[in-house]
Amino acid sequence: MAPAGRDALARGLDALARDGLVRARRVLDSPQGPVVREGGADLVNFASNDYLGLASHARIRAAAVAAIERFGFGAGASPLVVGHSRLHEEAETAFARFAGAPRALLFPSGYAANLGILTALADRSAEIFADRLNHACLNDGALLSRAAFRRYPHRNVGALEAMLGATRAATRIIATDAVFSMDGDIAPVAELLALAERHDAWLLLDDAHGIGVLGEGRGTPAHFGLRSPRVIHMATLGKALGGYGAFVAGDATVIEWLLQRARPYVFSTALPPAAAAVALEAMRLVEEHPARVATLLERIGEFHRACARHGIETSSPTAIQPVVVGDPARAVAVSARLRELGQLVPAIRPPTVPEGGARLRVSLSAAHTREQVLALAAALGEALGHGAAR
Questions:
Q1: Residue 85 among the catalytic residues
Q2: Residue 80: which region, alpha, beta or left (left: phi > 0; alpha: psi -120 to 50)?
Q3: Is residue 16 in some structural domain?
Q4: Which of 13, 137, 282, 286 is the most buried (most CB within 10 A)?
Q5: pLDDT-based confidence at 22, cuts 50/70/90?
Q6: Active-site residue (options: 209, 223, 304, 310)
Q7: From the candidates 48, 181, 335, 365, which is the catalytic residue?
């Protein structure tokens, strides 16, 4: 006999289909790269967060293989038991230096890191102030912490200041994406840090989409030239740095507290040593080859200019370039037409974005050529019905 709740799940799935919100996974038959193979077709890949083209880089692959030969694959235990290898230790030290912080801690993922940070620093006596367009993991971490959870309008420093002025919480945390994952815009980090200083708050920056892109690759704090013991800098390894996992960098006391009390860290098996080796090699590549970040910035500028010629509005200064179309069904149809034209661009629909905000999310990479970027802009113009370039 089927569980009683199955019919309710089936009705929910029917509602998703009716609203054009059912998602399906793509199956790739190639490594990540500027061109991927999916469904028997070779497609120019504007769907990946591999912003520097490192996911399949020869040195990244070699670092992973060498680590497996030396340490095997699995870590075998949580970091506080026997899962913390020499490679994990070296990667944490390297990231602290890379990010310009006293100390860093390696987490299983960015999602786990944000859950760990917020639940370790906040409790019922705390108040968390979050940008309304934050990633889901910051929202989930705030809810799990049991702190009072206040959301301020997107990038609205004035509204946040009023909230901070009214709080009586013992612990205050400002939590924000550094680069917003669906819009590609940048948080007003300098202003947020000034508020944190004025109102005795922590500033948690989720730099998943800023690391490797901004600040000559070192992330959003470096982009703004900011260092402060109030800043808790979370950066993922699975996007521009081409691997998997996440680091949290910050004041040494904060990092030690997370090591002792962040539940996703304490109670998870450590990342495979190979993931730490990949992180080390990715940081070396960014430092040794600054032209890679510069090339990404060139591609962004070329995309903006090409889109303008096709009547497409773009404004993001980062690798994420949203093209908002509004209606979910239209977003899916435009994405399908782009695929016919050889371009892999995902349609993003609610609840990932607000109602009425369905879009094409273009992700640019240093591995893309100028010709690929120009071809994408032309294909977008055709798929959106904008006609010939102006």
A1: no
A2: alpha
A3: no
A4: 282
A5: confident
A6: 209
A7: 181
Give me the domain span that covers residue 137: 62-288
- Residue 289 pLDDT more than 70? yes
pLDDT at 310: 95
Distance CA 202, CA 142 (A): 14
Structural tokens at position 213: 């892109």
Neighbour tally for 80: CB within 10 Å: 13
Report the SS3 class of residue 280.
helix
| Domain shared by 69 and 100, yes or no | yes
**Segment 40-54 mean pLDDT:** 97
| Domain presence at residue 194 | yes
Q: What is the domain-level CATH number for residue 307?
A: 3.90.1150.10
Asked about 239 being catalytic, the answer comes back as: yes
* pLDDT higher than threshold 70 for residue 279: yes
CA distance 261 to 215: 31
Closest alpha carbon to 192 in 224, 167, 146, 222? 224
Active-site option among 239, 304, 310, 368: 239
Q: What is the pTM of this model?
A: 0.95
Q: What is the mean pLDDT of the chain?
A: 96
